[in-house]
Amino acid sequence: MSQTAMIHLHDVHKSFGTNHVLRGFSMAITKGEIVCIIGPSGSGKSTVLRCINGLEAYDGGTIHVNGTLVDNKAKSIVAIRQNVSMVFQRFNLFPHRSVLDNVTEGPVFVKGEDVAKAQQRGRDLLARVGLSDKENAFPRELSGGQQQRVAIARALAMEPQAILFDEPTSALDPELVGEVLSVMRDLAKEGMTMIIVTHEIAFAREVADRVIFMDQGVIVEQGPARSTLSHPAHPRTQDFLRRVTHPIDPA
Amino acid sequence: MQKFLADAAEFIPILFQGVVLTIGLTIGSLVISTVLGLVWALMRVSGVWVLNGTAKLFVNFIRGIPIIVQLFYIYFVLPDLGITLTAMQAAIIGLGIAYSAYHSENFRAGIEAIDHGQIEAAQSIGMGWWMVMRRVILPQAIRIVLPPYGNIMIMMLKDSSQASTITVAELAMQGKLIASSTFKNTSVFTLVALMYLCMSLPLMALVTYLEKRFSSGQR
To answer: Is the pTM of this model over 0.80?
Structure first.
């Protein structure tokens, strides 16, 4: 295991019933790295993220975060989750709490931070995602893009070392995608470690250090974002990229 | 009507003693059944096989036995085992346990109705099982659970009359005693019915109020 790797997966296997979703998946993410995982639906992209922070148990192989083995039955999973936040496709904000309370929930109740201090930081984070005026609103009063930006602020409030993004723009109306990507772009500039499962190829090309193309539970191809996306070597990658970038072309 | 009012003036003070016991019974067994019901429900959703199985067995066991038989058991059989309770204690505990089964199924349905993404979001910011329940699931489940909870509460108020079978002189029993000694069945039981109604209606209003309160700021 590489000493510099912050998140390290080795030969990870995962099945849902008879469906073998991950078939020996390995990757290492170093601090500050931005990796986009792309691939057809059902290829196991989301499952990789969900295994890293223990939302899903894995059947074989090892996952380490900062050298600690990820085991969602062990107490250590709480510390791992605080270090590795997650942003979900469907936002999953707490509907019964205001925007600011959503952001301060983790710092106050999980980390035991002082309420006033957490609220101050929460307001700063909301300003950072451009939602200062919405702190007293409830999630249902916001657009999808605004909700996802609150979700990113909620993830940041835990002061994580890395953030996992699980198709953060897939549930959004097209005109709202940009505002979320722009917040993520800012995070990238600030050096946040990010693993992003996405179908936004242009965004991956622009922001990612590395792109991983996954199919049927394994890495088919990976490399620097620009060259891999512009000149994919593997026929399955070429085919996938053609489909997502020119969806109306006959196959 | 004149005659009824005269009877009412005479009987209401006696019936009122029954009302006090009825309210005491209902509140006591409501507290016990709510706490126990929540315990069963949390055991059911704990994901721990032994807890889930135990709670399921217990709830079905309780649901399968008439309340009146449970009351007889607690009041008449437990003394043989060295546990002697007053009629009131036995009634509160008996109704509390019997109704915990109904609360439990209601609570469980409410908890399971919450989107699984809520649990994942809470876990992803480092919450443990208890905190997920307390901070995220239960506050949202309350809204779903309240209307049926109100109905169960009203059923409990009425079923507290079953305590009369183990000598608790609550409202129904007081009515029966007066009726059998005065033969004024119509006046007495009309009064008894009205008094139950007077206790149920505020409960219904309370449920409506709570539903409104808990739905503010939400879908």
So the answer is: yes
Q: What is the pLDDT of residues B82-95, one digit of tens each?
A: 999 999 999 999 99
- Banded pLDDT at A13 (limits 50, 70, 90): very high
Residues B115-131, buried b or exposed e (16+ Cβ, 10 A)? Answer: eeebbbbbbbbbbebeb
Give residue B8's pLDDT: 86
Residue of B nearest to A74 (CA): B128
* HEC-encoded secondary structure of chain B: CHHHHHHHHHHHHHHHHHHHHHHHHHHHHHHHHHHHHHHHHHHHCCCCHHHHHHHHHHHHHHHCCCHHHHHHHHHHHHHHHCCCCCHHHHHHHHHHHHHHHHHHHHHHHHHHCCCHHHHHHHHHCCCCHHHHHHHHHHHHHHHHHHHHHHHHHHHHHHHHHHHHHHCCCCHHHHHHHHHHHHCCHHHHHHHHHHHHHHHHHHHHHHHHHHHHHHHCCCC
In angstroms, the CA B171 to CA B25 distance is 11
Residues from B contacting A (CB-CB < 8 Å) are: 115, 117-118, 120-128, 131, 135-136, 139-140, 217-219
Contact indicator for B126, A158 with CB cutoff of 8 Å: yes
CB B201 within 8 A of CB B158: no
Q: Express each pLDDT in A120-152 by its tens digit.
A: 999 999 999 999 999 999 999 999 999 999 999
Subunit contact A85:B124, Cβ cutoff 8 A:
yes
Q: What is the DSSP letter of A199?
A: S
Judged by CB atoms closer than 8 Å, whether chains meet at A138 and B217 is answered as: yes
Query: What's the pLDDT tens digit per position in A166-194?
Result: 999 999 998 999 999 999 999 999 999 99
- Dihedral, A236, A240, A241, A243 alpha carbons, nearest 10: 140
Q: What share of chain B has pLDDT > 70, as a percent?
A: 98
A87-112 pLDDT tens trace: 999 999 999 999 999 999 999 999 99
Q: Which residue of B lies nearest to A77 if distances are taken between CA atoms?
A: B126
Q: How many CA within 13 A on the CB side of residue A46?
A: 13
With contacts defined as CB-CB under 8 Å, which chain A residues touch B124?
A: 53, 55, 81, 85-86, 88, 155
Q: Which residues of A touch B219 (CB under 8 A)?
A: 95, 140
Q: Which domains does chain B have, with CATH numbers?
A: 2-215 (1.10.3720.10)
Query: Rounded to 5, what percent of chain B is helix, strand, coil?
Result: 85, 0, 15
Asked if residue B215 has pLDDT above 80, the reply is: no
Is the pLDDT confidence value at A246 over 90?
no
The residues pairing with A211 across neighbouring beta strands, listed in sequence order, are A36, A223
